[in-house]
Write a structure and sequence with these properties.
- The chain is of the alpha/beta class and 355 residues long.
- It has 16 helices and seven strands.
- It has a seven-stranded mixed beta sheet with strand order 3-2-1-4-5-7-6, with helices on both faces.
- A hairpin with a 5-residue loop joins strand 6 and strand 7.
- The longest helix is centred in the first third of the chain and has 25 residues.
- It starts with a helix and ends in a 5-residue tail after the last strand.
- The site of S-adenosylmethionine (SAM) has 18 residues, from helix 7.
Length: 355
C-alpha cells in the first residue's frame, strides 16, 4: 500500500511546476516530510547533548553529517523533485530551520540575499573552501563544501583558467579579447591572469557582463591588482535578452574567448540555443568558447532543492549536442565534455582560423 502511495506521490510531483501542492500533492507527502523534519530535529537535539553543546568539533561534524544525510536520503526517496518540492521544503525549514540556518552556505542558498542563489559571495566562499565560525554551522558548511556541485564549480573555475591561459600562450602576439557572460566574481579570469606572465597579461582585454552590480564591483576589485584599468570593461546587462539585443554586438562581437558558467542552467532550450548561436556568431576566426551546464545526474540535487530551493535546468550531453546543432554549430566545431567530476558538462566551441 505504502509503495503504491509513494508511486502516486511521485507521479503527481515529478517535473510539475506551478501546481497547487497543498491540494495536488496530497497530505501524505506533507506528513512524510514532517516526520523526516522531526527526526532531523531530534537527531540534532541529541547531537547537541552528545557533543557538550557542540564543543566536540569532530563528533559534531560526524553527527551533523549523518543526520543531514539521513534526512536527504529520505527526502530523495519521496521522488518529489524540481519546483514541486518548493512548498514541502518549507515544512522542513519550519521544523528544522533553526538548526539548518546556522550553516552559512545553506542559509545563503535558502534566503538568497541578492535575489538568486550562487551569488558572488557564495562563489568566493566555495572557491576558498571557507566555513563559518559557529561550530554546528561549520559542520554544515563542510557538508556543503563536500558536495559534488561545489566541487564541480571549483573544477570548472580551474578548467576555464587553464583554458584561457593556454589560449593566450598559444597566440604568438596581439590582444586577446575575453568576454565572460554572467561573470559573477570572475574568479576564473583572476586565476587565468595569475597563470600568465606580465607580458602575456598585458595583452588581455576583458569584458565582464552581469546583472548584479555588486558582483561586477567585486570582480573588478579582484582583477585590479593584476591588469591595468583599461584592460577591464564591466558591463551591467540583463543577459536573458542578450541574444536579441543589438547592444550585444558591442560587447560580444570580435571575441577571441567567450566563457559562460552558471547561466545556461537557468535558460530554457530556446533561449539556450539562441545564446549559443549568438556566441558562435560573435567569435573571431580562431576563437573559442567554454559554456557550462549541469548534468541531470548531479548528486547534490536533493540538497540543493530541499535545503536551498535551488532549481537548475539540467541537460544531458545529447541534449547539449542537439542544442549546438539548433544553434547552427556542427561537429567538429563543438565538443561536449565535462570538468573532472563529470557533473558540470560544457560545450567547447572552436571557430576555425579560416571561416
Ligand atoms: C552562478 S553565477 C556564476 C558566476 C561565474 N560565471 C562563475 O561560474 O563563477 C551566475 C551569475 O549570472 C548572473 N546572472 C544571472 N541572471 C542574469 C541575467 N539575467 N543577466 C545577467 N546576469 C545574470 C548572476 O548575477 C551571477 O553573477
Amino acid at each position: 500500500m505504502r509503495d503504491r502511495l509513494n508511486f502516486y506521490v511521485f507521479q503527481r510531483c515529478k517535473g510539475l511546476s506551478g501546481m497547487n501542492w497543498e491540494s495536488d500533492c496530497s497530505d501524505a507527502l506533507k506528513q512524510r516530510v514532517e516526520r523526516i523534519a522531526l527526526s532531523l530535529d531530534a537527531d540534532l537535539r541529541q547531537a547537541f547533548d552528545l557533543t557538550g553543546g557542540w564543543r566536540d568539533a569532530e563528533r559534531t561534524d560526524r553527527l551533523a553529517n549523518d543526520a543531514l544525510q539521513r534526512a536527504l536520503d529520505q527526502l530523495s526517496a519521496t521522488g518529489c523533485w524540481g519546483e514541486a518540492n518548493r512548498l514541502p521544503s518549507s515544512t522542513l525549514w519550519r521544523i528544522a530551520g533553526g538548526w539548518l540556518e546556522t550553516g552559512s552556505l545553506q542559509r545563503r542558498a535558502r534566503t538568497k540575499p541578492r535575489g538568486y542563489a550562487g551569488d558572488f559571495e557564495m562563489l568566493a566562499q566555495i572557491s576558498a573552501n571557507r566555513v563559518c565560525d559557529h561550530p554546528l554551522g561549520a559542520a554544515f558548511d563542510r557538508f556543503f563544501q563536500a558536495q559534488a556541485a561545489p566541487q564541480a564549480v571549483r573544477n570548472r573555475t580551474t578548467l576555464v583558467a587553464e583554458a584561457i591561459a593556454g589560449f593566450v600562450q598559444r597566440r604568438a602576439a596581439g590582444p586577446v579579447h575575453i568576454v565572460s557572460v554572467g561573470s559573477g566574481p570572475a574568479l576564473d579570469l583572476q586565476a587565468a591572469c595569475q597563470r600568465l606572465t606580465p607580458p602575456h597579461r598585458q595583452r588581455l582585454q576583458m569584458t565582464l557582463l552581469d546583472l548584479d552590480p555588486a558582483a561586477l564591483d567585486y570582480a573588478g576589485s579582484q582583477l585590479a591588482p593584476l591588469v591595468a584599468a583599461n584592460q577591464i570593461r564591466l558591463v551591467r546587462e540583463n543577459l536573458f535578452r542578450l541574444a536579441q539585443s543589438a547592444r550585444s554586438r558591442e560587447f560580444l562581437d570580435g571575441a577571441d574567448v567567450i566563457v559562460c558558467s552558471g547561466l545556461f542552467d537557468y535558460l530554457d532550450a530556446a533561449a539556450a540555443a539562441a545564446m549559443l548561436s549568438r556566441f558562435w556568431q560573435a567569435l573571431c576566426p580562431g576563437g573559442e568558447a567554454w559554456v557550462f551546464n549541469f548534468a541531470p545526474y548531479n548528486p547534490s540535487r536533493a540538497y540543493m532543492e530541499w535545503i536551498g530551493n535551488w532549481y537548475l535546468i539540467y541537460r544531458t550531453d545529447q541534449q547539449m549536442a542537439d542544442l549546438a546543432a539548433q544553434a547552427g554549430i556542427q561537429h567538429p566545431q563543438f565538443q561536449i565534455a565535462a570538468e573532472p567530476s563529470g557533473v558540470n558538462l560544457y560545450w567547447h566551441v572552436a571557430r576555425a582560423e579560416t571561416t
